[in-house]
Amino acid sequence: MSRFFRRGGDSSDESSSDEEEELLSGDDSGNEIIPKPSKRAVSGGSDESPDSDDSDDSDDSDEREEEKPIKKVSRFLKTAGSDSEDSDDESVKHIVKSAKDKRMEEMATSGDMIDQKLRINDWAAINTEFDKLTRLVLRQTNLSEPLPPVYLRVLSTLDDAVSKEKEGKKKMDANKARALNTVKHKVKKTIKEYEVQMKEYSADPEAFTAQYAASTQPEVLPKSKKPKKDRGDGEDGEVDAFTTVGKGGKTYSLGAADLYKNLAAIQEARGKKSTDRNEAMKILEKLRQVASTPYSRIRVLLALISSRFDYNTSVSTHMPIDIWTSAQNELNELVSILIEAPQYAVVEDFQIEYDDNVERVPSPSEPIIKVRGSVISYVDRLDEEFTRSLQNIDPHGTEYVDRLKDEKSLYETICRAEVHFEQSDPSSLARVMMRRLEHIYSKPTVVVTILERSTSEALASVLPPTFPSLNNLGTTTALVRALCVHLYQTEFSLLRTRAMLCHVYHHALQNDFHTARDLFLMSHLSETIHNADVATQILFNRAVVQLGLCAFRSGLIKEAQSTLQDIFTTQRVKELLAQGIHQQRYTVLTPEQEKAERARQLPFHMHINTELLEAAFLVSSMLVEIPHLASIDTEELKRKAISKPFRRLLDFADRQVFTGPPESTRDHIMQASKALQDGEWEKCRDLIQSIKIWSLMPEEAAVKEMLAKRIQEEGLRTYLFTYSAYYASLSLSLLATTFSLSVRTVTAIVSKMIWNEELAASLDQAAGTIVFHRVEPTRVQQLAQTLADRVSQMVEQNTKALDQKLGGGGGGGSSWNDRAAGDTGGESQERKGRSDRPRGGQRGSGGARGARGARFAQGLGGRVGGSTAIQA
Fold first, then answer.
1. Which residues of 154-182 are buried (b: 16+ CB within 10 A; e: fewer)?
2. 418 — phi, psi (to 5°)?
3. Where does this protein have compositionally biased stretches of type Basic and acidic residues (predicted)?
4. Is the pLDDT of residue 336 over 90?
5. Exposure of 344 by Cβ count < 10 A (0-12 exposed, 13-18 middle, 19+ buried)?
6. 366 Cβ partners below 8 Å, 6+ apart?
């Protein structure tokens, strides 16, 4: 090639600069790249002759270009990289787009894609893109934004395309036809849903698009704000309308004119995932300030209370206390409005449709304005959230005590609702009265008096004369009775059952055992309690336990032992009383079951002390079981215990090689039982009275005095059963001196034992002695007794086999209760070892139940079945 046709980039200056850069630069490994020397340098030519520049280069230009290595620049140089790359980086600008803009771009892209697929009739792809577009639009409508014109245009286009494709549908393959049908149904359904918007768009698409652009343009608010006016401070008492900017720049005009419109928007967004609950509550609080008429205030308060309860969606946790307090204040305001304006009523099952966006006032055609809602559900939810908060707070801290103080205000709210329902809704009156009863039935008289006094002062202006209160009735027992009598007349069987159990519990708490027992037996609840719900079964167990404690405080030891027997036989006392979760050895609770168990636990201040309960049961069992053990003389009868839990503990204590000083309550009772067996009644008394748990018992001194007296009497009975075989006669005065009892008391105890045929003796009152009789059974009587015992064993084995064949269940528990009651009722027959009548036949049938205590034990025979239903 001629030397005159040089390229523009082959000048000597550029070549020299390139050579210098190549000498300075190296590759990535650090080695310098040395270019191949030119022929001009080798021949020693100079730069003076212009011909010497290109003479040799013209022939070998291609070869030099191939052999020339690629120029590489070190990454550590400041000027690394080409100028073009730097200019490109500087020219690119990152644009930050909002979620709304991104969503609009995605909608536009999906619309264009649908248009492209329509040209080739790819209905499967159209179906996919239409679903994507529908999801984007649904997300936008969830944010209370208007329907975009792009979506309406796509709907109109698809509707036309589907109608045109009906004719050529037969020529399509199966997949395309199936996709076409799917798109057809979706488009038809969507057009029907947005019928109003489609009509507006079809009439004038450009105007609809302009209106959409204007509505989505965020409104710029002035920086200066007018000071807010408090209600009632201005001249006209009204609040100026104001505008709130919500999430995503959306504006809300919160004036009196837009009140119902905003309420409707909030109600539509309720329950959706994208709804901001805090923002909804703030808007409703503003609307509450704007509302001026009773109807508007009722509507806003109903929505606001619902939003408070919607704040916490989790069942395992409780509402924040500040939100709960706000909901309570708003509920009080709502009920006060309904009391002051009886022409407005909030009805739960109101079926008549009315316009929610129009102010409604009473008229001759509609004297009472009914609003759809439920006040009783708000009261129930408020009470449940209060209980749930107590369940989730540490009961041993000050926070629990502070939270418990809110019960007084909650009780006032319940009483206020009761006043309202007495005037308007008798069906809800029973439910709110049950709530009130549940707050006072288990509390001492002092606490109930404080609650009633504060309620009477707070509601003095609205309380009617017929309202049941402590001022009208005088005593807490009369107040509980008035509430229960009203609930007995209701049509809800569950409320009647719970009212009966609360009534029994309250009588037992007031130490009125006989009234509580008779009321309990007349209700026959032990026969049907297994069909009730778990909460009612827990209340049943609490009433039974409190009944047993009442019998113990009253000195009725046998009744206390028979009442508490079934609860302690299950060995799940805490679980049956909802005071703890019972962890079984081979059973693991699922998370759902454990969550349900924790949800039904009672607050700590309603717990019955299980240690005190166990002490009462074990002491009652000791006073019943120790004389019974001393009265029988065969090993077979000794194995049949009245109280199995007590006998198990006593046998374990007897097997101990070394017995140290008593530490726990059980240790005190077991050592006291051994002392009572040995006749050391004074040691037994001291051990029982030294138990510290008696300090939690009301009237501690009277209980200890009662226990000392009963220990003396049972010690005398145990002594006579144990040593009667070694005496021919015994002085009454000696027994009175030994057991620190009066001669009259000893005579009464001995006479009762002789009358019940527990003691084969006669009483010589003239000489003041007991004359013992020894009656040895004949050979025939001994054989008859042996035969009767074996028949009794066969009956028991057959009963157990039948229970196992039929599935176990509550029948086994009931049969065991019948046998236990039979042991108590037929006790005299078993102890008649020195008589001539057989005794074994009494155990299978249960014996005679002539005494009142035995009938009471029979009436409580269904408790084990009800308790078992709780676990199921």
1. bbbebbebbeebeeeeeeeeeebeebbeb
2. -65, -40
3. 828-839
4. yes
5. buried
6. 360
Least confident of 350-359, 404-413, 469-478, 842-851: 842-851
Contact 298, 345 (CB under 8 A): no
Q: How many CB atoms lie within 10 A of CB 202?
A: 11
Q: Tokens 């923002």 — which residue?
A: 279
| Rounded Cα–Cα distance for residues 547 and 76 (Å) | 91
Structure tokens at 848: 């005679």
Q: How far apart are CA 581 and CA 584, in angstroms?
A: 9
| 800/519 Cα distance (integer angstroms) | 33
| Residue 414 · residue 468 · CB < 8 Å | no
CA distance 240 to 219: 19
Phi, psi of 29, deg, nearest 5: -85, -5
Strand partners, 371: 346
- The DSSP secondary-structure symbol of 397 reads S
Long-range CB pairs of 463-468, under 8 A, 24+ apart, other chains included: 463/419, 464/419, 464/422, 466/422, 467/415, 467/418, 467/419, 467/422
89-143: pLDDT as tens digits = 444 555 666 777 777 888 888 888 888 888 888 888 888 888 888 888 877 776 6
Tell me the two tokens of residue 27. 């590759």
The model's confidence at residue 144, banded by pLDDT at 50, 70 and 90, is low
DSSP for 198-213? Answer: HHHHHH-HHHHHHHHH
Q: Is the pLDDT of residue 552 over 90?
A: yes
The reported pTM is: 0.64
Q: Cα 180–184–189 angle (5° rounding)? A: 155
Residues 6+ apart with CB under 8 A from 687: 662, 668, 669, 671, 672, 675
Scanning the structure block, which residue is given the tokens 């309380």?
463
Is residue 849 over pLDDT 50? no
8 A C-beta contact, residue 730 and residue 753 = no
**Strand 369-372 to 344-347 pairing:** parallel
Confidence (pLDDT) at 167: 58
Which tokens belong to 71? Answer: 């120029």
The dihedral over CA atoms of 521, 523, 527, 533, expressed in degrees to the nearest 10, equals -130
The length of the chain in residues reads 872
Q: Has residue 14 got a pLDDT over 60?
A: no
- Residue 718 CA to its chain's centroid (Å): 51
The pLDDT tens digits of the residues spanning 821-838 come to 344 333 333 333 433 333
| Rounded (10°) angle between helices 809-825 and 779-806 | 160
Three-state secondary structure of 489-550: CCCCHHHHHHHHHHHHHHHHHCCCHHHHHHHHHHHCHHHHHHHCCHHHHHHHHHHHHHHHHH
Give the chain's count of helices (H) and strands (E).
Answer: 43, 7
Rg for the chain (alpha carbons), in Å?
46
Token pair for residue 870? Answer: 């709780």
